[in-house]
Amino acid sequence: MSAIQRQKSSNLDKPLSKGKAEINVATFALLFSEIVQYCQNRVYTVPELQNKLSELGQHVGNHLLDVLFLRERGFKRETKHLQMLLFIKGTFWKTLFGKDADKLEQANEDARTYYIIEKESLVNKFISVPKDKGSLNCASFTAGIIEAVLNGANFPAKVTAHYHKGTTFMIKFDESVIARDKLLDGK
């Protein structure tokens, strides 16, 4: 066996590394501004642009889900929605943005609705919104990632981004998620 063959087989046998928990903000800002510009050139309205960003975020979220559970949890998945939200607020957010999300709150009037609050969203930090697109919230990209992760982990939900106390991600779970949790709790 040649040295190259030994090296190839040994590289394949190595476990996945955890990688760095750091992001290069300048690189991210440049890449994300190009993503926004790419999407903007393919739509006509702000809601269409936000939907396009959300769709791209969902692609990212679909690919992140398995990697996160493999690296961080050894394939152990959450069974209750609150534990999944805490995973997103902590481990998931730290993987994407280098820190935990600022807050997780439940809506007073609706057991299916939760809010993840980020005082200064990284995706909005470096984007200058033109006056004609004043309501644009580029955090729709992050909302798409969150939605894909929740849906892929069997917690069907719709996630939207809003300006409120910074950037607020409103997570509205499907009724089946709450019903499943009640069954798991024996209520």
Q: What characteristics describe this protein?
A:
4 strands, alpha+beta, Muramoyl-pentapeptide Carboxypeptidase, domain 2, about 190 residues
Structure in words:
The chain is an alpha+beta fold. It has one domain: Trafficking protein particle complex subunit 3 (Muramoyl-pentapeptide Carboxypeptidase, domain 2, 2-Layer Sandwich). It is 53% helix and 13% strand. The protein is built from 7 helices and 4 strands, in the order ααααββααββα. It has a 4-stranded antiparallel beta sheet with strand order 1-2-4-3. The termini are far apart. The model has no long low-confidence stretch (mean pLDDT 83).
Query: Helix amount, in percent?
Result: 40-55%
Report the CATH superfamily.
Trafficking protein particle complex subunit 3
Element-level helix/strand string: HHHHEEHHEEH
Total number of strands:
4
CATH class: Alpha Beta
Q: Secondary structure elements and their pairing?
A:
Blueprint: H1 3-13, H2 25-40, H3 46-73, H4 81-97, E1 103-106, E2 113-118, H5 122-125, H6 140-152, E3 157-163, E4 167-173, H7 175-185
Antiparallel strand pairs: 1-2, 2-4, 3-4
Helix pairs in contact: 3-6
Short description:
The chain has one domain (25-185): Muramoyl-pentapeptide Carboxypeptidase, domain 2. The chain is 53% helix and 13% strand. It has helices at residues 3-13, 25-40, 46-73, 81-97, 122-125, 140-152, 175-185; strands at 103-106, 113-118, 157-163, 167-173.
